[in-house]
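Project outcomes to date are best conveyed with an example. Our students and postdoctoral researchers have been running inverse folding experiments weekly, and each run begins with a structure described purely in tokens. The record below, which covers 150 residues, was selected by the lab manager from last quarter's runs and is presented without edits.
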């Protein structure tokens, strides 16, 4: 169980911590210092690297989580906090899938073609969806830890 929980928590740290850094720290710093074309290129490069890690976490979270549920004896044997976690985790993964397939790929294409206006609009959508997933990630972490303690 311990190695599974370690992989699970490592995935949470990478995904939620990465979103926190991108949204709370890098975004305002990039707006302050860089003009739009450079800023959009920076985000394209940041997302390419970050999303490769997010793919690892969106695979590792449900695999490690479902295996832990199996070791506990199935859904009927685990607390309500795990039911909430599974639901919220699946919503987060769906939002990420939308960010990657519907927004990021278009954003990256606009940056490559130097369509700065369209790229800026797409970045605005990605920003809002990352805010949604960051909120859900913090909420899920709270549910997991506090729910277990109750
Ligand atoms: C995607 C489906 C997910 C499943 C099936 C799942 C399942 C589980 C299970 C079975 C545990 C062990 C619970 C226990 O020992 O009482 C656990 C622990 C935990 N999970 Fe998840 N989880 C999922 C997603 C997430 C997400 C998205 C987050 C946060 C963003 C998260 C955060 C945590 C944390 C912080 C713990 C440690 C709780 C503790 O031991 O205090 N999980 N998860």
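After processing, the design step wrote out the following sequence:
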């Amino acid at each position: 169980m311990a190695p599974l929980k370690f992989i699970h928590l490592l995935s949470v740290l990478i995904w939620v911590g990465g979103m926190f850094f991108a949204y709370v720290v890098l975004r305002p710093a990039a707006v302050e210092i860089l003009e739009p074309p450079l800023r959009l290129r920076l985000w394209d490069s940041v997302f390419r690297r970050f999303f490769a890690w997010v793919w690892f976490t969106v695979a590792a979270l449900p695999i490690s989580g479902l295996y832990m549920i199996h070791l506990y004896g199935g859904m009927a044997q685990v607390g309500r906090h795990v039911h909430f976690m599974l639901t919220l985790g699946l919503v987060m993964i769906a939002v990420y899938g939308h960010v990657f397939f519907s927004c990021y790929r278009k954003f990256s294409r606009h940056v490559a073609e130097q369509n700065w206006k369209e790229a800026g609009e797409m970045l605005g959508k990605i920003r809002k969806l990352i805010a949604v997933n960051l909120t859900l990630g913090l909420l899920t972490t709270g549910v997991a830890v506090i729910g277990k303690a109750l």
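The mean pLDDT is 97. Residues 2-149 form one domain. The training component of this project remains on track.
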